[in-house]
Design goal:
heterotrimer, A alpha/beta, B alpha/beta, C mainly alpha, A: alpha/beta, Rossmann fold, nine-stranded mixed beta sheet, globular, B: TIM Barrel, 27% strand
Chain lengths: 207, 251, 396
């Protein structure tokens, strides 16, 4: 426990406190930071986020952490967990607010609006189940069809199907959990999903 | 499949937990921390915390309280009451709330809401619309039911959607605290009108009227307070009943 | 309150506006005092004859069962209730649901009542489970004696049904003295609140329900039946049996102090001085945990037994307000280091808590706004661990 350096990227807006609280719940310490030296020396990185894709990438560029994040992820192989918008930013491109914005391109894919018919509301808000597509360390003690808390209007469309380890259903199927080696992305908010959400975070921190 | 959400609401005034009828006769019913910890024990879907005195008294937002409550919650927390500026929203979210609920300030200045949605994202902005029915007209009231606005109900709602608001809490002042059943007619109308999720509030008294509401209107969520304070029923009891009736809920 | 950090007190007594269910009016007087002022208008003779009517309605007509149940702790009020009911010629069954940590004085007083020529039933809920519940209740709603309040109400009502004794005679509806909402007190002539399920949910549980506990511990194998002592019987069952719980305080002028005088004359043993944290020697003698219960009222709302008793005395002309304020400052709100001579550590040990756990829970439930703080934001305390309120009286 003491030899982990858990760094939560400071997105300036929203829920970093909740994520920190969830990490603390297991007795781990986390720091909230955008400093290069912290990101470089992290044992685990968490990329939270709420808001739009273009705003999210703008913050990453304003804080000048795009390169160091990519390096930590792809070269150092630091375990990374992207949450909600944080998951989206791992993609190649995003199409929010009628703009095409480049993402971090850590897991190839595109972020587009959820496909739905008029009966379904957007944002997709509330508790929905995940269907596990592939066994994975992150699912330890998590049963198939467990509910987690979602709040989003956009989805991550993976280029490589093998990166999809969990899906959910809202009008049509969408990807709710992605994984490529050391990089994870969850569409839902584990820090707001009670016991099972906390379990996901615990599983991630044990990687 | 997305579940219907059953959301308890905690109202407070001067740091005391209160409950009222028709936005009147507020009674202190206990300590806020007590109720929060009970809902934490119950692992409810979400929690809404509303300061009903804030706007009218022009008080500062109680960030310490929000922080204390957020420390207890590993489920989504919404805070509302007296929110007027971007700075307010920023402080509230930093203190640990996930969403803010705005009422009066929205009626007074839609541009503020538009800006808030852009900065914080739709998912963080809920607008609370309190109304009374006067014959065929639906009147919108602000300041905890003290001030009548001239806004046209449907137009206002559509505009909220267009500027990017994430959710709407619709409260019938006439029904609030009565435990007499929801205003199904209006809620149905609003749910059909808008593409964003609606949370219905005001009137929950028993399982049957909550089932009736969901079946008739297909709302996304039900918020309630009185039913959980003054009766044996808990949010879980409601959900167990709904599940039996084939409504998708998280158990 | 103009300043959220200052408590507003009743101008007449010293009850603060933070107290649940009580209201302080525009004139600065609390509903408790206002109710008391109207006591002189009550026709007690009329009320007494109503009581006789109630007795006649519900008592056993066939001489084959008890006329009523009296929930009894053996304390000053239940001793008074029992002896008064005997005076009316009824045959009561006294039922004690023992406290979690019964004291020797408590035991003595139960035995005293048993010697008054009544049939007596003593019930103790499973103490292993009970301790766990009290610990959970302390953590969840800041109430270490949750099982006391709840078990008495639920179990007595259940016995009424099981034994076919419809009439339950409770003592006083606390909302009369407190000035609680009219529809929940039974102070007035026209509204006679009964001790029913809604009243129970609102006033006895602090919001925590037995179903909450059941759900929380389901995985550990706790069943419905295990929590029966804490579950209020179903409305239908109550109706079928015709169970009705009346408050004697509606029909007879109630005064806790006078009850004590009466009961002492009839064998009640009291403490040899004021019980710690209070200004009387004759109340809450049967449970070592009681002071912790009161302390949490202070942490949550800024008042405790001292305020209650002083206010009661002020209303009856037995104490000046100035004296009351001083007592609330010097005697009230102190850290519960002992009770009835027993040390806190021993009391906590019985409840399965360490002092550190206890202090953490205290902190969680403290309404930080009403207490003095140091410059760094932490709560001030004197060198004995006592918190200090921002104000003990209204600031002009």
């Amino acid at each position: 426990m003491n030899n982990k350096k858990i760094v939560i990227i400071d997105s300036n807006i929203g829920n970093v406190g909740s994520v920190k609280r969830a990490v603390n719940h297991f007795g781990y310490q986390a720091i909230i930071s955008n400093k290069h030296e912290d990101i470089n020396s992290a044992s685990h990185l968490i990329l939270p986020g709420v808001g739009s894709f273009d705003e999210g990438m703008k913050k990453i560029h304003d804080n000048q952490i795009a390169d160091v994040l990519i390096e930590a992820t792809t070269i150092k192989k630091t375990p990374v967990l992207g949450i909600c918008l944080g998951m989206h930013l791992l993609a190649t491109k995003g199409y929010e607010n009628n703009k095409e914005t480049n993402g971090l391109n850590i897991i190839p894919g595109l972020v587009k609006k959820l496909k739905k018919n008029s009966e379904f509301k957007l944002p997709h808000i509330g508790w929905n189940q995940i269907i596990i597509k592939e066994k994975n360390k992150i699912f330890k003690n998590i049963l198939d069809n467990t509910d987690f808390y979602f709040v989003h209007s956009y989805e991550f469309i993976c280029e490589d199907e093998l990166n999809i380890i969990g899906i959910s259903n809202y009008c049509s199927e969408f990807t709710s959990i992605i994984n490529q080696n050391n990089v994870y992305g969850v569409q839902f908010h584990p820090e707001k999903s009670l016991d099972h959400g906390l379990q996901i975070i615990k599983n991630f921190l044990e990687i | 499949m997305l579940r219907k959400r059953i959301i308890p609401t905690l109202l407070f005034k001067d740091n005391k937990l209160v409950k009222g009828i028709n936005f009147n006769s507020w009674r202190t019913v206990g300590s806020i921390m007590q109720s929060v910890r009970i809902y934490k024990l119950r692992k409810v879907d979400e929690l809404i915390l509303l300061d009903i005195s804030a706007t009218n008294l022009g008080k500062r937002i109680d960030l310490d309280l929000i922080n204390e409550v957020a420390n207890e919650c590993f489920m989504p927390l919404t805070f509302g009451g007296g929110i007027k500026t971007i700075e307010d929203i920023s402080c509230i979210l930093k203190s640990g709330a996930d969403k803010v609920c705005i009422n009066t300030a929205s009626i007074n200045n839609l541009r503020f809401i538009e800006e808030a949605c852009k900065i914080f994202g739709s998912q963080a902005i809920i607008i609370s619309v309190d109304y009374k029915r006067k014959g065929k007209i639906i009147e919108i009231w602000s300041n905890s039911g003290q001030v009548k606005s001239n806004l046209v109900f449907e137009d206002y709602l559509k505009e909220l959607e267009s500027i990017g608001v994430g959710e709407i809490i619709l409260t019938s002042i006439d029904k609030d605290g009565t435990m007499d059943g929801y205003d199904i007619e209006t809620i149905t109308k609003v749910n059909k009108l808008l593409n964003i999720p609606i949370i219905a509030s005001g009137g929950a008294g028993n399982f049957e009227n909550m089932l009736d509401l969901i079946k008739s209107t297909n709302v996304s969520a039900l918020a309630a307070a009185s039913i959980y304070h003054f009766t044996k029923k808990t949010p879980l009891d409601v959900k167990k009943y709904l599940k039996e009736k084939k409504i998708p809920v998280r158990l | 309150m103009n300043n959220i950090n200052q408590i507003k007190y009743c101008k007449k007594c010293i009850i603060p506006e933070t107290r649940p269910h009580t209201e302080i009016g525009e004139d600065g007087i609390c509903s408790g005092c206002k109710y008391f002022d109207q006591r002189k208008n009550i026709d007690w003779d009329k009320r007494k004859s109503e009581l006789v009517k109630v007795f006649n309605k519900y008592k056993n007509k066939s001489s084959n069962n008890y006329d009523c149940i009296i929930p009894s702790s053996g304390g000053k009020d239940s001793t008074y209730q029992a002896l008064k009911v005997l005076e009316f010629g009824l045959r009561p069954l006294l039922i004690t649901v023992t406290t979690d940590m019964l004291t020797p004085i408590g035991r003595k007083n139960i035995d005293n009542l048993k010697n008054k020529g009544v049939d007596y039933l003593e019930f103790s809920p499973n103490s292993v489970l009970r301790k766990k519940i009290n610990k959970l209740a302390l953590d969840t709603v800041g109430d270490i004696t949750w099982t006391e309040e709840v078990a008495v109400s639920c179990t007595v009502t259940r016995f009424s049904i099981k034994m076919g004794i419809p009439l339950i005679i409770w003592g006083e509806n606390p909302e009369n003295e407190n000035g609680g909402p009219k529809e929940n007190s039974d102070f007035f002539d026209d509204i006679i609140q009964k001790h029913d399920d809604e009243w129970f949910e609102t006033f006895r549980t602090n919001g925590l329900k037995s179903s909450d506990i059941l759900d929380f511990w389901k995985k550990e194998g706790v069943k419905d039946i295990d929590l029966q002592p804490y579950t209020f019987p179903d409305k239908n069952e109550i109706q079928k049996n015709g169970t009705v719980g009346i408050f004697l305080g509606h029909y007879l002028p109630w005064d806790g102090h006078k009850n004590a005088e009466f009961s002492i004359k009839n064998g009640l043993t009291t403490y040899d001085k004021w019980v710690e944290g209070s200004i009387v020697s004759y109340e809450n003698l049967d449970n070592y945990q009681m002071r912790i219960h009161d302390y949490f009222k202070f942490l949550k709302y800024g008042y405790d037994r001292v305020s209650d008793w002083s206010s009661l005395a002020i209303r009856r002309g037995r104490m000046s307000r100035k004296e009351a304020v001083e007592l609330s400052r010097t005697v009230g709100g102190k850290y519960p280091d002992t009770y009835l001579g027993k040390g806190l550590e021993e009391i906590l040990d019985y409840a399965g808590l360490t002092k550190k756990e206890f202090d953490n829970i205290c902190d969680k439930f403290t309404n930080k706004k009403i207490f003095k703080k140091n410059l760094d934001g932490t709560l001030q305390n004197d060198n004995k661990g006592n918190l200090i309120k921002n104000n003990y009286d209204n600031i002009e």
